[in-house]
Amino acid sequence: MRKILGFALIALGIFLEITWLGICFGSIIIGVLLLIFAPRILFFPFNFFLLLGLLTMQGKSYKYYSGYKKQDYNHTNYRNTQSSFSNLDRYYETLESSKDDSFDTIKKNYRRLIKEYHYDSIASKGLPQDMLKFAEVKTQELNEAYAAIKELRG
User: Fold this and answer.
1) Which of 137, 101, 136 lies closest to 119 in space, CA to CA?
2) Residue in 144, 134, 60 with CA at minimum distance from that of residue 110
3) In the chain, where are the structural domains located?
4) How much is the pTM?
5) Which one, of 6, 13, 14, lies nearest residue 53 by Cα?
């Protein structure tokens, strides 16, 4: 019964997709603009009902695929505490600082490193694409480290 319902949902998606494309391309200007600027809108009915039909056939809910996991903030376990300590050490190392440094020193190091590794400063020098990618990743790491230390120290 699930397979029949799943195939029916997929068939409904195909029918709605054809109808939707007919409406959009009924006025050619709207259809072309959607095709250029928002192609996901054009194919939404088919994708939605395809996913719904396949999930119905398998008997699984959408929550199973969403990747969302409820976090319980009332209980912290030892492993999470250990990983947060190792992350803090890595954050201080990223900012070329130590735990004993004042927050002003950490802020100065952060600003210096951001100036050095920021994507725009690397791009203005005309360096190769690999360096631009490295600069982007390094900037993200610096921002993450600074935000974590700033939050920790208040």
Assistant:
1) 136
2) 144
3) 2-66, 86-153
4) 0.45
5) 6
Which class in CATH covers the domain with range 86-153?
mainly alpha
Dihedral class, residue 75 (left if φ above 0, else alpha if ψ from -120 to 50, else beta) = beta
What distance, in Å, lies between the first and last C-alpha atoms of the chain?
58
**What does each of the 154 residues of the chain score in pLDDT, given as a tens digit?**
888 888 898 898 889 888 888 887 887 787 788 778 877 777 788 888 888 888 888 776 555 444 444 444 444 444 444 455 577 888 888 888 888 888 899 999 999 988 888 877 777 777 777 788 888 888 888 999 999 888 888 7
Cβ neighbors of 135 (< 8 A, separation 6 or more) are 117, 118, 119, 121, 122, 123
Give the gyration radius of the chain's Cα atoms: 25
In the structure encoding, which two tokens stand for residue 31, read together?
């259809």
